[in-house]
Amino acid sequence: MTEDVLDCMATIAKASSEWGFFQVLNHGISHELLREMKEEQKQLFEMPFEKKVTSRLLNNSYRWGTPSATSRDQFSWSEAFHVPLSEISLEDHSTASSSRSLREVMEKVAGAMSKLARTLAGVLAENLGHPKDCFTKSCNKSTCFLRLNRYPLCPFSPEIFGLQPHTDSDFLTILHQDEVGGLQLMKDNKWVSVKPNPDALIVNIGDLFQAWSNDIYKSVEHKVMANGKKERYSIAFFLCPSYDSAIGSCKEPALYKNFTFGEFRKQVQEDVLKTGRKVGLPRFLLR
Predict the structure, then answer these.
(1) Radius of gyration of the chain from Cα atoms?
(2) How many domains does the chain have?
(3) The model's pTM
(4) What is the 3-class SS of 8-74, one letter each residue?
(5) What is the CATH number of the domain that holds 156?
(6) Contact 221, 148 (CB under 8 A)
(7) Could you tell me which of 240, 185, 237, 236 has the C-alpha nearest to residue 208?
(8) Tens-place pLDDT, residues 249-284
(9) Ranges for the Fe2OG dioxygenase domain (predicted)?
(10) How far is it, in rounded angstroms, from Cα 201 to Cα 219?
(11) pLDDT (tens digit, 9 = 90+) per residue, 11-69?
């Protein structure tokens, strides 16, 4: 490897340890493809709310707000289509040419982001002395997701979250955000705004990577603030393993109990139903 490549790998690992977030330039995903995705995304979200809710678009993947919220600080002023990669190309009864065009662009974006995510995960695994595919080989199209997000104008801004504070329940997330901004991450107990960069993709560490790395890499809390003047769009790719995949520590002594991704997801869902909030990794710490 060249010195430049080694320096880049070291920078990625350092950012993942200190911030849990970093931005990637020269990522290989064309601006034209991302522009096409946003155009398709806008057309999709411009459909009437009733149609989005009832027509089973993209295999019934539509989500809005936070149905489980019991207070204002648990509510997210946003809507999304959260689609497993395995279902992007599946036909449903919405087979108009516009739907086919949307699916074709989503397939291209998902493929490109999946390739990038696996490359970056490999860099981080190798930095800890493990084969680059040591856990990504368990990631497949049925458990990895592409999420199309829209944050409508909010008359209550800045009192409302576009997306409430949370950590991601995956290995790695890749995000393309537009020029509006609003994404913030927690650093040293303070919220830090992530300035939009049209040439960059944002990458953040998820809970599974933090557990696997034994807290070397950090899954940090982040949120999106609602906006009263402009709507916001983003695209997120989530690198997740199969539900029966064991998430063990890459070193000893381990900080977390052995658990599967399926067990983690189930615990998160139970906590959200009971309390309105995700607890996440603290549930699996060894005492």
Answers:
(1) 19
(2) 1
(3) 0.95
(4) HHHHHHHHHHHCCEEEECCCCCCHHHHHHHHHHHHHHHCCCHHHHHHCCHHHHCEEECCCCCCCHHH
(5) 2.60.120.330
(6) no
(7) 240
(8) 999 999 999 999 999 999 999 998 888 889 999 999
(9) 140-241
(10) 17
(11) 999 999 999 999 999 999 999 999 999 999 999 999 999 999 887 888 899 999 988 77
Find how far residue 197's CA is from the centre of its chain: 18
Triad 200, 12, 214: Cα angle to 5°:
130
pLDDT reported for residue 91: 66
Report which residue type is found at 249: S
Q: Which of the pair, 91 or 107, is modelled with greater confidence?
A: 107
Q: Which residue matches tokens 């699916």?
A: 103
| pLDDT category of residue 95 using cuts at 50, 70 and 90 | very low
The pair of three-digit structure tokens given for residue 130, joined into one six-digit string: 């493990």
228 close to 154: Cβ distance less than 8 angstroms: yes
The pair of structure tokens assigned to 154 is 């909010």
Q: What's the mean pLDDT in 212-225?
A: 98
Tell me what percent of the residues of the chain surpass a pLDDT of 70: 97
Whether 191 and 184 have beta carbons less than 8 Å apart is answered as: yes
Structural domain including 180 reads: 3-284
Cα–Cα nearest to 249, from 190, 189, 209: 209
What's the order of all strands across the beta sheet hosting 232-239?
21-24, 201-205, 172-177, 232-239, 145-151, 79-84, 62-64
Helix or strand holding residue 81 (H, E)? strand 79-84
What type of residue sits at position 3?
E
Query: Poorest-confidence range of 71-80, 100-109, 171-180, 227-236?
Result: 71-80
